[in-house]
Amino acid sequence: MYQHNMFENPRDDDQDRKSENDIVEAPSGGNDQNTNDIPNNRRRYQRHTLEQIHEMEALYKDHPHPSSMQREELGRRLSLEPLQIKFWFQNKRTQMKAQHERTENSVLRNLNEQLQADHKRLTEALTNATCINCGGPAATGEMSIEYQLIVENSCLRDKIDRLSKMTSKCFDKQILAYPDVSSSQGPSHSLDLPASNFSQNQGMVAEMLGASDLPRSMVGPTEIEKPFIVELAVEAMEELTKMALVGESLWVPTSDDPSYETLSEDEYMCSFLGGVGPKPPGLKCEASRASKIVMMKHMTVVEILMDVNRWSNVFYGIVSRARTLEVLSTGVAGTFNGAMQVMTAEYQIPTPLVPTRESYFVRYCKQEDDGMWVVADVSLDDLRSMKSRCRRRPSGCLIQGMHNGYSKVTWVEHLEVDDGAVLDSYKVLVNSGLAYGAKRWVATLERQCERVAGAMASNIPVEDVGTIITLEGRKSLLELAARMVSSFCSGVGASTTNTWTSLSGSRLDDVHVMSQMSMDDPGKPPGMVLTAATSFQLQVPPKQIFEFLRSEHHRPKWDIFSSSGAVQEIAHIANGRAGNCVSLLRIASANTTQSSMFILQETSNDSMGSYVIYAPVDAASMNVVLSGGNPDYVALLPSGFAILPDGPEQREAGVLAVGSGRSLITAAFQILVDSAPNANISINSVATIDTLIKATAERIKNEVSSNN
Predict the structure, then answer these.
(1) CATH placement of domain 226-454
(2) Helical axes 82-127 vs 145-174, angle rounded to 10°
(3) What is the pLDDT of residues 640-659, one digit of tens each?
(4) What residue ranges do the domains of the chain occupy?
(5) Which residues make Cβ contacts (< 8 Å) with residue 433, sequence separation at least 6?
(6) Can you identify the CATH homologous superfamily of domain 462-707?
(7) Residue from 663, 625, 386, 417 nearest 549 by CA
(8) Contact between residue 535 and residue 432 where contact means Cβ atoms under 8 Å apart
(9) Alpha-carbon torsion (682, 687, 692, 696), positive or negative
(10) What is the pTM of this model?
(11) What is the β-pairing status of strands 260-263 and 284-294?
């Protein structure tokens, strides 16, 4: 395990520098008293064996750039990972390049010394030069052509000399020895640069790449960092697997749900000796484990996790934005076995009041011998000495395929966070680990698997889908609903891409507004869009609020726009358990303008929260969708509600009551202020949407509380 700083200042004595063929034995766990003399931030490690080095040297002579098939075959023979083979060859090429450059530098230095001597001799000769005619001192113009050429040549040589010295200094500072990644025990070389110069060197590299203006977490890894990343990912994979499979000694079941467990920190410190690096000061541990059997093949789950777009779409309620910075490996033989990528992501809960958590990490996927797949994440903040409010220790999931097309997913979330900026109203939810814990991830995955299964079903009775009589129309409607839900979730949180302005303060019940100009997005109406959101608390279980808001019969009680007429459900598509569905609603009214509008609504719920999301759609666009047309060009302005339990679940009379107790509700509305491309937000527009969202919240509070 990492117990030292990988960028620690190297010692100057030559005895600490190991040759490539040295083998250093790792300290045993026995009675070797010398291990107590090893400082906590330094340790021994296991290098490549002489046999492994000999085999790789032999292949390097003929193939300095081996193919993936050659690396895989060599890895099998030597019992090494393909990535370890890859980086050994990369290190070897770097070492050979460094030797070649040092040789060139030596030749240049000798040439410089010779040129300096020639320059000195020529300067003395020119100083003593005399005029041929009078015998006096010679002016430059009176020199012979030979002497003039010698002077010009000397000036050019001086320029070359200065450039050579600058190049030599640059190479001497930047040529670093790559570590040996044959073992998860640690790097085999120390960096030639002091730790204090590392960040400066990284900044110079980023500037050379044209990325100096980007945040350091948004810049991909340098060649120097990649071997360390590989080693860290291998170590994280090992720790995650042990944590996911270990028994009850490490994990403590919660009283409300035996399938959800929290980490025993004392047992963890004993079992993993501190894990991957020490815990930074000021951060608290937040770790949990949860298991679930989901309705999806195991390889489909793996594909979702290794595709950043599909991953963020499936977990849209948790991942507000994500990006792959660089793919270090695509895997072996067309599979994700050995795939590794450096990523950045932002995690949220659906409210503007809780700050998001950002993470810069590496994701590593590997297939175990028993067919089980493991996807591991670990933060790379320490690699660049970045200070973060959220540090991701080895986390991820184990996916085991089952014979019936289902998969068993065991999820581990192990974080070190600073939640000092969280409002008191949300601290119970956040501190319990439910807001970002393993239970929320598996609950979201389970719900999305049910949704995908519902979308792929083909034996749907016509009476269950109302006016949708074709599978193409049903598919288009579900795609439109999925985009609506994803847009709502990305727009309601505190993501750094959202710029919220509070109309009063930052307390519960305060209204936050945000304006956005949309001109080139076919999925949104063009013009200035104003979004308003507010969060409030009710002494009512989330399940009860969800049932009230999703019912078309209760809608006129809280929806101001439908209060003048009854709401009729004309289409219904179930996509999972009871209450999870996509509906097409129409408001019955004498007003022909209103009757030409439909309301597309999706409702979903699980043990960690519920959503009721809707958007008005004009009749012409909806007819295109119901006919199987492309839903991407239907303009939507999603509004709706996110309902979270205010803390852990409770048991009533010995029976688990999902989300029993209090609820935290976030309501968000969107309106088109002006379709002009140069439109501005007016005070009247802000006042209108402020009144609308406050009136809706009051109606919900009054109706739900009176029925409780």
Answers:
(1) 3.30.530.20
(2) 150
(3) 999 998 876 554 444 334 44
(4) 47-182, 226-454, 462-707
(5) 262, 286, 287, 288, 413, 439
(6) START domain (3.30.530.20)
(7) 663
(8) no
(9) positive
(10) 0.69
(11) antiparallel
